[in-house]
Protein backbone atom coordinates (compact mmCIF):
# COMPACT_ATOMS: atom_id res chain seq x y z
CA UNK A 1 0.00 0.00 0.00
CA UNK A 2 3.04 2.29 0.16
CA UNK A 3 2.78 2.66 -3.59
CA UNK A 4 -0.74 4.10 -3.22
CA UNK A 5 0.43 6.63 -0.61
CA UNK A 6 3.27 7.70 -2.90
CA UNK A 7 0.85 7.90 -5.83
CA UNK A 8 -1.46 10.13 -3.80
CA UNK A 9 1.43 12.44 -2.87
CA UNK A 10 2.69 12.70 -6.47
CA UNK A 11 -0.85 13.31 -7.73
CA UNK A 12 -1.45 16.04 -5.16
CA UNK A 13 1.78 17.78 -6.21
CA UNK A 14 0.83 17.44 -9.88
CA UNK A 15 -2.63 18.84 -9.20
CA UNK A 16 -1.07 21.87 -7.50
CA UNK A 17 1.20 22.42 -10.51
CA UNK A 18 -1.77 22.02 -12.86
CA UNK A 19 -3.88 24.54 -10.95
CA UNK A 20 -0.91 26.91 -10.95
CA UNK A 21 -0.65 26.46 -14.73
CA UNK A 22 2.84 24.97 -14.46
CA UNK A 23 1.95 22.37 -17.06
CA UNK A 24 5.45 21.04 -17.80
CA UNK A 25 5.91 20.14 -14.13
CA UNK A 26 2.41 18.69 -13.87
CA UNK A 27 3.08 16.57 -16.96
CA UNK A 28 6.27 15.11 -15.47
CA UNK A 29 4.53 14.33 -12.19
CA UNK A 30 1.51 12.70 -13.86
CA UNK A 31 3.90 10.61 -15.97
CA UNK A 32 5.67 9.59 -12.74
CA UNK A 33 2.32 8.64 -11.21
CA UNK A 34 1.48 6.55 -14.29
CA UNK A 35 4.82 4.74 -14.16
CA UNK A 36 4.42 4.11 -10.43
CA UNK A 37 1.01 2.50 -10.92
CA UNK A 38 2.16 0.51 -13.97
CA UNK A 39 5.14 -0.81 -12.01
CA UNK A 40 3.03 -1.60 -8.95
CA UNK A 41 0.49 -3.37 -11.14
CA UNK A 42 3.16 -5.38 -12.98
CA UNK A 43 4.93 -6.41 -9.79
CA UNK A 44 1.68 -7.51 -8.19
CA UNK A 45 0.57 -9.28 -11.35
CA UNK A 46 3.84 -11.21 -11.65
CA UNK A 47 4.16 -12.20 -8.00
CA UNK A 48 3.30 -15.75 -7.08
CA UNK A 49 1.59 -14.72 -3.84
CA UNK A 50 -1.95 -13.53 -3.32
CA UNK A 51 -0.70 -9.96 -3.77
CA UNK A 52 -2.91 -9.39 -6.81
CA UNK A 53 -3.37 -6.04 -8.50
CA UNK A 54 -6.25 -4.29 -6.86
CA UNK A 55 -9.11 -2.34 -8.30
CA UNK A 56 -7.58 0.65 -6.54
CA UNK A 57 -4.38 0.36 -8.61
CA UNK A 58 -6.43 0.17 -11.80
CA UNK A 59 -8.45 3.24 -10.83
CA UNK A 60 -5.39 5.24 -9.77
CA UNK A 61 -3.70 4.51 -13.08
CA UNK A 62 -6.81 5.64 -14.94
CA UNK A 63 -6.98 8.86 -12.93
CA UNK A 64 -3.36 9.62 -13.74
CA UNK A 65 -3.97 9.00 -17.44
CA UNK A 66 -7.01 11.29 -17.42
CA UNK A 67 -5.08 13.98 -15.58
CA UNK A 68 -2.22 13.78 -18.07
CA UNK A 69 -4.70 14.07 -20.94
CA UNK A 70 -6.11 17.18 -19.24
CA UNK A 71 -2.63 18.73 -19.21
CA UNK A 72 -2.28 18.11 -22.94
CA UNK A 73 -5.78 19.43 -23.61
CA UNK A 74 -5.16 22.58 -21.60
CA UNK A 75 -2.12 23.21 -23.79
CA UNK A 76 -4.10 22.38 -26.96
CA UNK A 77 -1.72 19.48 -27.62
CA UNK A 78 -4.61 17.53 -29.09
CA UNK A 79 -2.72 14.74 -30.89
CA UNK A 80 -0.84 13.94 -27.68
CA UNK A 81 -4.04 14.10 -25.63
CA UNK A 82 -5.90 11.77 -27.96
CA UNK A 83 -3.04 9.30 -28.43
CA UNK A 84 -2.54 9.02 -24.66
CA UNK A 85 -6.21 8.26 -24.04
CA UNK A 86 -6.49 5.91 -27.03
CA UNK A 87 -3.35 3.95 -26.10
CA UNK A 88 -4.48 3.32 -22.54
CA UNK A 89 -8.08 2.75 -23.56
CA UNK A 90 -6.88 -0.10 -25.78
CA UNK A 91 -4.72 -1.50 -22.98
CA UNK A 92 -7.60 -1.38 -20.50
CA UNK A 93 -9.95 -3.12 -22.92
CA UNK A 94 -7.35 -5.85 -23.58
CA UNK A 95 -6.73 -6.26 -19.84
CA UNK A 96 -10.46 -6.63 -19.23
CA UNK A 97 -10.65 -9.52 -21.67
CA UNK A 98 -7.48 -11.08 -20.22
CA UNK A 99 -8.86 -10.92 -16.66
CA UNK A 100 -11.64 -13.43 -17.28
CA UNK A 101 -10.58 -15.53 -14.28
CA UNK A 102 -11.21 -12.56 -11.97
CA UNK A 103 -14.58 -10.90 -12.69
CA UNK A 104 -13.96 -8.04 -10.23
CA UNK A 105 -10.70 -7.14 -11.93
CA UNK A 106 -12.31 -7.39 -15.37
CA UNK A 107 -15.13 -5.14 -14.21
CA UNK A 108 -12.67 -2.56 -12.88
CA UNK A 109 -10.86 -2.50 -16.22
CA UNK A 110 -14.16 -2.14 -18.08
CA UNK A 111 -15.40 0.66 -15.85
CA UNK A 112 -12.17 2.59 -16.21
CA UNK A 113 -12.07 2.02 -19.96
CA UNK A 114 -15.51 3.64 -20.09
CA UNK A 115 -14.15 6.63 -18.18
CA UNK A 116 -11.19 6.89 -20.55
CA UNK A 117 -13.54 6.73 -23.54
CA UNK A 118 -15.74 9.45 -22.00
CA UNK A 119 -12.68 11.66 -21.55
CA UNK A 120 -11.65 11.03 -25.15
CA UNK A 121 -15.06 12.18 -26.40
CA UNK A 122 -15.03 15.17 -24.06
CA UNK A 123 -11.64 16.32 -25.31
CA UNK A 124 -12.59 15.77 -28.94
CA UNK A 125 -15.64 17.97 -28.43
CA UNK A 126 -13.45 20.58 -26.77
CA UNK A 127 -11.00 20.56 -29.66
CA UNK A 128 -13.85 21.11 -32.10
CA UNK A 129 -15.11 24.17 -30.28
CA UNK A 130 -11.64 25.78 -30.26
CA UNK A 131 -12.72 28.19 -27.51
CA UNK A 132 -10.31 29.56 -24.96
CA UNK A 133 -12.61 28.34 -22.20
CA UNK A 134 -14.20 24.99 -22.83
CA UNK A 135 -15.02 21.71 -21.14
CA UNK A 136 -11.30 21.03 -20.72
CA UNK A 137 -10.98 23.75 -18.10
CA UNK A 138 -12.94 21.65 -15.64
CA UNK A 139 -10.03 19.57 -14.39
CA UNK A 140 -11.52 16.66 -12.49
CA UNK A 141 -8.62 15.88 -10.17
CA UNK A 142 -10.46 16.57 -6.91
CA UNK A 143 -13.63 14.74 -7.90
CA UNK A 144 -11.73 11.75 -9.28
CA UNK A 145 -9.31 11.32 -6.36
CA UNK A 146 -12.11 11.74 -3.82
CA UNK A 147 -13.88 8.88 -5.54
CA UNK A 148 -11.28 6.43 -4.28
CA UNK A 149 -9.17 8.03 -1.60
CA UNK A 150 -11.74 9.14 0.96
Question: How many distinct folded domains?
Answer: 1
- If you consult CATH, what is the topology? Serine Threonine Protein Phosphatase 5, Tetratricopeptide repeat
Structural class: mainly alpha
The number of helical runs is 6
Mean pLDDT: 84
Approximate shape: flat
Give start-end ranges of low-pLDDT stretches: 46-50, 138-150
Which sequence of SSEs, written as H and E, runs from N to C? HHHHHH
Which CATH architecture would you pick? Alpha Horseshoe
Specify the helix fraction band.
over 70%
Give the total of beta strands.
0
Radius of gyration from the alpha-carbon trace, in angstroms? 15 Å
Description:
InterPro entries: TPR-like_helical_dom_sf (IPR011990). This is Tetratricopeptide repeat protein. With 150 residues, this protein is an all-alpha fold. It has helices spanning 2-19, 23-46, 55-74, 78-98, 103-129, 141-149. Helix 3 packs antiparallel against helix 4 (78-98). The two termini are 15 Å apart.
Amino acid sequence: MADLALWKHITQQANIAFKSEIYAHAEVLYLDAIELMKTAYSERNLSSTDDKPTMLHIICLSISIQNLADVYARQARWPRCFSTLERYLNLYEEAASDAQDDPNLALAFLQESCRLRRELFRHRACEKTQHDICACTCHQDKKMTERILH
